[in-house]
């Protein structure tokens, strides 16, 4: 019955409205659209005024929502007596309506994607007239940050059609977002034969959109360093927002058009015995395999490791021009790289005279040392580790025995310090014995009884021998004899008993020589040494030591006598009395019956202390 009354009342009001509509009208004001984020609260305001100013009518307010099929469902009803939210709709628990003199406001909590539709505001002022307006509610859901993925395989520039470069995907957006591609910050548009953008969109169970875009691009060599990225743009209540993906790089395959060949090691000049590494590099990608050959031997290919050729222990015959060619599927490419390799050398030194050279004392000799080399050389002569000459030629003038020995020449290449060679010659200077010293007769004066040493040295090659002939003394012997290289040395010890003549005879198969020592014996004379202050000082010291010994001996005898160890011949009565003592003090008094009594007081404190006036016994 209540429903019938309400329906009748509504019909009655509409009939009345038709009669008075020509007399009064209600004016409504609403926004065409209201934008809101999904999950937020939407507010739709409906403002109204009446053209009938003579009365203050009561308004009947209703809110409707458009359904998918075109019909409308009421959400709210209010008149002067009651306010009612219709039950059984999707909005029953989510809407709230506030009405005042200026209008009515519909609030929708927890907006969903399904709420994107038109909402109608019906206002009936009875005698004041009626009006209907609508607002379209738009719901927005920002999508996820885009995910970009580039192709992992290389893309060849020789392909005629665009190739897939990367894909970009964004999810959970509403309305459907848009994806734009960029190359180094510049947007890419569809271009026949060069750029093709494929877009695939889908609507998930949550009614949110997922959009995937694939970029197909005809790559060129310049794209090897290019950065590709995608940008997602989408609508929001306050405009348009954008998300940009990270940039990615692609691998571009392109043919080799230029090749370079160089010597990787060793640094600097190459010498014989070095290990040489030649490296070849082209501008193609991926780097091709290379073959190596020599211009002088074009039909011989060297074994190599992809782009490196290693030449072990090179010699001068390895000098020449080396080439490398990149390989391709159907053979060798015409492009090539070249490098000139020069292997430097130094031959073994040749010394003239060779090995060993005999010379006579006083002669001159010229020796040469030469070594063939690809670079300028430097020659130094050594003897016994010391530098004796520089240059290819060595001059030995007025040869002496000391100049005998091994002469070594060392040839080096200044520009290649490790490149060196050497040779040697052994020079032997021959001659008869030669006594050391300018005097052939040596005069000496020595005191009788003295022993003197006589030394004799001789040079020569072959080495001379030394013998002694001594007259005037029967007491002599050889105390030292030694040889060193081209010298003989002998020392004899002689006792002078009279005038002596000593002959040092040197000899070899090339001659002999003699050196004479004449010793005159001087008789020994005994003299009294005069008094000197130094001698008197020694005598005084001896006397003092003797007196001290006597004093010590007397004190010992006296002590033993007092102890009774030694009997005393003197008559008289002796008496010893002991006074009171302490641990630190002992007093002993000695008495006799003689006319002159003597007392001796001995006092020792701690065994090591004396008074300032105490005297030792």
**Helicity, as a percent range:** under 10%
Number of discrete helical segments: 2
CATH superfamily of the largest domain: Immunoglobulins
**Helix-and-strand structural type:** mainly beta
What is the CA-CA span between the terminal residues? 161 Å
Total number of strands: 48
**Residues in β-strands, percent:** over 45%
According to CATH, the fold-level topology of the largest domain is Immunoglobulin-like
Protein name: Cell surface glycoprotein MUC18-like
GO molecular function, one term: laminin receptor activity
Keywords: Disulfide bond, Glycoprotein, Immunoglobulin domain, Membrane, Repeat, Signal, Transmembrane, Transmembrane helix
Membrane topology: Single-pass type I membrane protein
Q: In terms of topology, how is this protein built?
A:
Blueprint: H1 2-20, E1 26-29, E2 33-37, E3 42-50, E4 60-66, E5 72-78, E6 83-85, E7 95-99, E8 103-108, E9 118-124, E10 130-140, E11 147-150, E12 155-156, E13 163-173, E14 178-183, E15 186-188, E16 195-203, E17 209-217, E18 228-236, E19 239-244, E20 252-253, E21 259-265, E22 270-271, E23 276-282, E24 290-294, E25 297-302, E26 308-311, E27 320-328, E28 331-332, E29 337-341, E30 343-344, E31 350-352, E32 355-360, E33 365-370, E34 378-383, E35 386-390, E36 393-396, E37 405-413, E38 416-435, E39 441-447, E40 451-461, E41 465-471, E42 476-484, E43 487-495, E44 500-508, E45 511-522, H2 533-562, E46 574-578, E47 585-592, E48 602-605
Parallel strand pairs: 2-10, 12-20, 22-30, 32-38, 39-45
Antiparallel strand pairs: 1-3, 3-8, 4-5, 4-9, 5-6, 7-8, 9-10, 11-13, 13-17, 14-15, 14-18, 16-17, 18-19, 21-23, 23-26, 24-25, 24-27, 27-28, 27-29, 31-33, 33-36, 34-35, 34-37, 37-38, 38-40, 40-43, 41-44, 42-43, 44-45, 46-47, 47-48
């Amino acid at each position: 019955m209540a429903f019938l009354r309400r329906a009748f009342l509504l019909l009655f009001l509409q009939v009345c409205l038709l009669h008075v509509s020509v007399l009064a009208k209600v004016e409504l004001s609403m926004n065409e659209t209201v934008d809101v984020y999904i999950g937020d609260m939407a507010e739709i305001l409906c403002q109204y005024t009446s053209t009938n100013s003579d009365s203050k009518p009561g308004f009947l307010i209703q809110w409707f929502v458009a359904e998918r099929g075109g019909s409308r469902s009421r959400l709210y009803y209010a008149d002067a007596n009651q306010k009612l939210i219709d039950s059984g709709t999707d909005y029953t628990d989510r809407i709230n309506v506030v009405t005042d003199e200026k209008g009515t406001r519909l609030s929708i909590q927890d907006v969903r994607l399904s709420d994107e539709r038109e909402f109608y505001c019906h206002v009936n002022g009875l005698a004041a007239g009626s009006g209907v307006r609508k607002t379209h509610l738009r719901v927005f859901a920002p999508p996820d940050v885009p995910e970009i993925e580039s192709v992992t395989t290389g893309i060849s520039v020789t392909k005629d059609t665009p190739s897939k470069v990367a894909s970009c995907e964004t999810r959970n957006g509403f309305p459907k977002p848009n994806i734009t591609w960029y190359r180094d910050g510049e947007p890419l548009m569809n271009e026949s034969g060069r750029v093709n953008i494929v877009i695939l969109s889908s609507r998930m169970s949550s009614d949110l959109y997922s959009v995937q875009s694939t970029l197909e691009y005809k790559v060129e060599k310049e794209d090897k360093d290019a950065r590709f990225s995608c940008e997602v743009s989408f609508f929001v209540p306050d405009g348009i927002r954008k998300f940009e993906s990270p940039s990615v790089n692609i691998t571009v395959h392109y043919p080799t058009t230029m090749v370079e060949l160089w010597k990787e090691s060793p640094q600097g000049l190459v010498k014989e015995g070095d290990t040489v590494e030649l490296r070849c590099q082209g501008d193609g990608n991926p780097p091709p395999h290379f073959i190596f050959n020599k211009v002088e031997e074009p039909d011989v290919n060297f074994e190599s490791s992809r782009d490196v050729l290693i030449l072990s222990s090179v010699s001068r015959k390895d000098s020449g021009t080396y080439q490398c060619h990149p390989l391709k599927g159907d053979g060798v490419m015409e492009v090539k790289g070249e490098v000139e390799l020069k292997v430097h050398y130094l031959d073994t030194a040749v010394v003239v005279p060779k090995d060993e050279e005999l010379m006579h004392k006083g002669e001159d000799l010229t020796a040469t040392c030469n070594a063939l080399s690809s670079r300028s050389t430097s020659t130094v002569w050594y003897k016994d580790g010391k530098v004796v000459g520089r240059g290819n030629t060595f001059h030995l003038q007025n040869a002496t025995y000391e100049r005998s020995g091994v002469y070594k020449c060392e040839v080096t290449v200044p520009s290649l310090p490790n490149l060196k060679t050497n040779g040697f010659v052994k020079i032997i200077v021959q001659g008869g014995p030669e006594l050391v010293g300018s005097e052939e007769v040596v005069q000496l004066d020595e005191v009788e009884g003295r022993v003197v040493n006589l030394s004799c040295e001789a040079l020569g090659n072959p080495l001379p021998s030394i013998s002694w002939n001594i007259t005037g003394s029967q007491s002599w012997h050889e105390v030292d004899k030694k040889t060193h290289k081209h010298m003989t040395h002998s020392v004899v010890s002689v006792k002078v008993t009279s005038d002596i003549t000593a002959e040092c005879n040197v000899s070899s198969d090339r001659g002999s020589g003699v050196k004479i020592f004449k010793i005159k014996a001087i008789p020994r004379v005994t003299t009294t040494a005069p008094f000197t202050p130094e001698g008197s000082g020694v005598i005084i010291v001896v006397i003092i030591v003797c007196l001290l010994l006597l004093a010590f001996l007397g004190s010992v005898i006296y002590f033993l006598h007092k102890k009774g160890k030694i009997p005393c011949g003197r008559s008289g009565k002796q008496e010893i009395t002991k006074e009171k003592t302490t641990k630190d003090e002992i007093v002993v008094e000695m008495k006799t019956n003689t006319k002159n009594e003597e007392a001796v007081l001995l006092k020792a404190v701690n065994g090591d202390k004396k008074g300032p006036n105490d005297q030792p016994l």
